Amino acid sequence: MKISFFLPSFGISGGFITVYNHAENLTKAGHTVDIVMPHARHRWKPGDCKAIYSQALRVRGHPAVSLAKTLDYKLFSGRLVKMYRKLNSRDITPLQIANDVTEALVRNWDASDVTIATAWPTAFAAMYLSEQTLPFYYMQHDEEVFFAPEQTRQRLTCRMTYHLPLHLIANSRWLQEQIKQKTGKDSLLINHALANSDIFNIAPQEFDSKFADGKRIKVISYCDRRPFKGWKYSADAMRLVQEKHPAVEWVTFGGELPAPGVKVTHLGKISNEKLAAAYKESRIGLFSSLCESFPLQPLEMMACGCATVTTPLGTEAYTRDEENCLVAQPGDAQELANKIILLLNNIPLAKKIAMNGIATSNNFTWADSTRRLLEIIEIAKCAGRN
Fold it and tell me: Domain containing 165: what range?
């Protein structure tokens, strides 16, 4: 079977990681996979996933810039960067973005049995080709949350794509519910997995060390300025925690944002290896997003033996409150703080939750996720024949 994935660019954030891992497993299973972008088409080869990660982590220690620059200039003469700058111009409208991306994707597409859009600017191209291929929209998030309320044109153009007559795939129950509420349409559910299970894991001696008496206690969390990521609630929660437990250290990764009145160490953008090491040194993982759709950070924290405090929206597939994590309501800094303090005061509970989290993380594999994707494709084929 020939399968094409439509991507808006190269990258190494969650949605891109999803496509790369599916492409890797599909190719190994004997399918032909194209990664189609506005600036190029890439025929996937076994091992490309590992090559992308290694190339990405080589550039100035900054994972996010590599594929947009190193691979772009190396393979595509800088066309991706030029298009990215154009699409982010203040003068271009969302509909112009959609039009430009659609024309470029259609031009680069090679005839395929299945074509899968993966982000809102790519959905129109899948619809445009729907009489020549079996078209899907593999939604990675309710992308409206990427825009501020006053960005009406962007939000509604994004929402428009969910109404297109494409076969919808959602990666969380929360996303399924959002799309059903907005469009009345059903979507098929698929779970994701750890991007690098060979890195995000923990040895028994490392686990015992982080819970040893007298060990410095660290809490680790993700830092991102986008409002839906909930940075404010992480900062407020840790202020409350440190008022009661001044010795607790707070470590963050990702961005670097102010947290007045809180002692915090920002690690910034770091490699997966350094991130895994930071997780292993931290007793508690904190994730405060207001809404997500199968976020990988809480699962990574679990895999590395952190007793994890998380919010529930989009994490439903792998979170079990008081079993493998503690769940706090989005936007409630006091509840987040209370959960962390409970884990600080109750070490047996923290160890139990952390151990169960490790077991949970092992249950989610990309092999299973790709099998589910193929099952969804067969369901859509049968529906088309009926």
Answer: 2-193+365-385
